[in-house]
TrEMBL record:
The gene is edd. Belongs to the IlvD/Edd family. This is Phosphogluconate dehydratase. Binds 1 [4Fe-4S] cluster. It comes from Massilia atriviolacea. It holds the Pfam family ILVD_EDD_N.
């Protein structure tokens, strides 16, 4: 099937737009690579420190500087259900790597916070910043220059984007991403949503709500709804950074362990010494990024990726924006119905055909680039496969021709919708993202008076006091990354849903985030630029008529131009969001972060390498490096 003309034109536009920064990035990759194992650039002292505590056989292998060394970078902690299984993965990986004549070292851990735990709490104001902190921690883990490839253990919201951003800053190293898989299915999403709304109405007790949540989030593995965490996993599949079909295999199973062993051994195979050198910076190119956007849209994935994919692309020297998402959304059909866009969870999605089915359908329809490089080599079609076990070894078989459940997963010829359900809205209030895949047609246009709030807590106080039984557009402002770290505003969803169910015409406009759990209420989110970057959301006053129209992509305050121009920006005391729960440590992030449409990042696009500054000392092992222990002893003999 020929490539769809819109996919082709958007890709060409991105390639042209990115030419200077992508060229600089690829030059960085070439400069960082050396012939032979990367540890060959280290002095004897450096290298001895790097393997001092290792078992004898592994130490001998590292001494010889012949075989590849694989870094393990993990987001393990045992509070996060999705990351708790990673406790056992390093041992599996080390054994699997030894079996193919190489060595693996646990290079470092990265922080992993759970948005589910911090939701509505002060800690949520660190959440978005944690992505760039994770990227920095990844860089620290790899900074020892001991490694020839890496496996990255991560699943959830900011963690996988942070790991990938960090990996791309070491883009000369091959990378394989290893998921832990989702927890088994608990309480149905429909029943969970019903009890949450009852609690918001005061018709369910806290004990009843806690029992509901405990039955929903009940064991090891990722939450099973299709939020940011599981969107991450879909993207790693379609970007070719997972072993095929690895995303949604539950933890603690033989197949899960088999896939982890296969991933570890693939990391060896694609190292420079493994014979199929495939650096991650070459895999993540413009076509790969377009494929990721298409996959996100086709599955109704998290709106958080309108930030994260921009940031991931930027790390690889690629420039994308919300116009690219919007144009692709117009031609990418919706192939899945997974909660919050349907009743099924990701386990149902996997049983119906999973990521491989989606990739095959999109390839056959000309909506994806097949001519990309993945961890398996050339061509995305190799990832249209389903994993099975042969003994303890993972093997792959062809997917069934038909979906296992067309209420969850459909072919391109019979989609749930003809578009991707994620649009750009814009006007005199700025530019914003709107996810409409779960918004019914009758709710896609709202024109109503504005009610302004400076926090979700202010909104909830008004709601519980019975002051919001009317038609209105809630303008939740000062929620952008510079203001308070751009926390997710999930507390608003049940309240707004109740008002909508009661017949009120309501909508949300905010410079904050709603994530993959945004649902049936129309919401223009990530309004960019935010108020602290001069954005016009601060000009809105209570009573202004706001028009949010998903059919025309309109986000307007219907205020006379002269009145609008005469207004000054609203102000707010944000000091309470800058101190406590570690928030004062992130002042530099708030001061340095880019606007939402540019990825809300703290790092720049790649720039050309200064010709006078080498990236590393290419000395052979045994050379005396200035400032090293050997150099000190030569200059200061006993």
């Amino acid at each position: 099937m020929a490539l769809h003309p819109v996919v082709e034109s958007v890709t060409k536009r991105i390639i042209e737009r990115s030419r200077p920064s992508r060229g600089a990035y690829l030059a960085h990759l070439d400069a960082a690579r050396i012939e032979g194992p990367q540890r060959g650039a280290l002095s004897c002292t450096n290298l001895a420190h790097g393997f001092a505590a290792f078992p004898a056989n592994d130490k001998l292998m590292l001494k010889q500087v012949k075989k590849p060394s694989v870094a393990i970078v993990s987001a393990y902690n045992d509070m996060l259900s999705a990351h708790q299984p990673f406790e056992h993965f390093p041992a599996i990986i080390k054994d699997a790597v030894r079996d193919v004549g190489a060595v693996a070292q646990f290079a470092g851990g990265v922080p992993a916070m759970c948005d589910g735990v911090t939701q509505g709490q002060p800690g949520m104001e660190l959440s978005l910043f944690s992505r760039d902190a994770i990227a920095m921690a990844t860089a620290i883990a790899l900074s020892h220059n001991m490694f020839d490839s890496a496996v990255y253990l991560g699943v959830c919201d900011k963690i996988v984007p942070g790991l990938l951003i960090g990996a791309l800053h070491f883009g000369h190293l091959p990378a394989v991403f290893v998921p832990a898989g989702p927890m088994t299915t608990g309480m149905s999403n429909k029943e969970k949503a019903r009890i949450r709304q009852l609690y918001a109405q005061g018709k369910a007790t806290r004990d009843e709500l806690l029992e509901c949540e405990s039955q929903s989030y009940h064991g090891a593995g990722t939450c099973t709804f299709y939020g940011t965490a599981n969107s991450n996993q879909m993207l790693m599949e379609i970007m070719g950074l997972h072993m095929p079909g690895a995303a949604f295999i539950t933890p603690g199973t033989a197949l899960r362990d088999g896939l982890t062993r296969a991933a570890a051994q693939r990391a060896v195979a694609i190292s420079q010494q493994g014979g199929s050198y495939t650096p991650v910076g070459q895999i993540v190119d413009e076509k790969c990024i377009v494929n990721a956007v298409v996959g996100l849209l086709a599955t109704g994935g998290s709106t958080n990726h309108t930030l994260h994919l921009v940031a991931i692309a930027k790390a690889a020297g690629i420039v994308i924006d919300w116009d690219d998402f919007n144009e692709l959304s117009g031609i990418v059909p919706m192939l899945t119905r997974i909660y919050p866009n349907g009743d099924a969870d990701v386990n149902h999605f996997q049983a119906a055909g999973g990521p491989g089915f989606v990739i095959r359908e999109l390839l056959d329809a000309g909506l994806l680039h097949d001519d990309v490089t993945t961890i398996l080599g050339k061509g995305l079609r190799a990832h249209c496969a389903e994993p099975f076990l042969d003994g303890e070894k993972a093997i792959w078989k062809e997917l069934p021709a038909q979906s296992g459940d067309d209420s969850v997963l459909r072919p391109v010829a019979q989609p749930f919708a003809q578009d991707g359900g994620m649009i750009l809205v814009k006007g005199n209030l700025g530019r914003a993202v709107m996810k409409i895949s779960a918004v019914k047609e009758q709710h896609r246009v709202v024109e109503a008076p504005a009610l302004t709030f400076n926090s979700q807590e202010d909104f909830m106080h008004a709601y519980t006091a019975g002051k919001l039984d009317r038609d209105f557009v809630a303008v939740i402002r000062f929620q952008g990354p510079r203001a308070n770290g751009m926390p997710e505003l999930h507390a608003l969803t049940p309240a707004l849903a109740n008002l909508q169910d009661a017949g009120r015409h309501v909508a949300l406009v905010t410079d904050g985030r709603m994530s993959g759990a945004s649902g049936k209420v129309p919401a223009a989110i990530h309004v960019s630029p935010e108020i602290l970057a001069g954005g016009p959301l601060g000009l809105v006053r209570d009573g202004d008529i706001i028009r949010l129209d998903a059919t025309t992509g309109t986000l307007e305050a219907l205020v006379p131009a002269a009145v609008w121009a005469a207004r000054s920006q609203a102000t707010a005391d944000l000091s309470s969001s800058h101190i406590g729960m570690g928030r004062e440590l992130f002042t530099m992030f708030r001061n340095a972060i880019s606007e939402a449409e540019k990825g809300a990042t703290t790092f720049p696009l790649p720039s050309p390498i200064p010709t006078t500054v080498p990236l590393h000392d290419a000395a052979d092992i045994g050379d005396t490096v200035p400032g090293s222990d050997e150099d000190f002893l030569i200059k200061n003999p006993k």
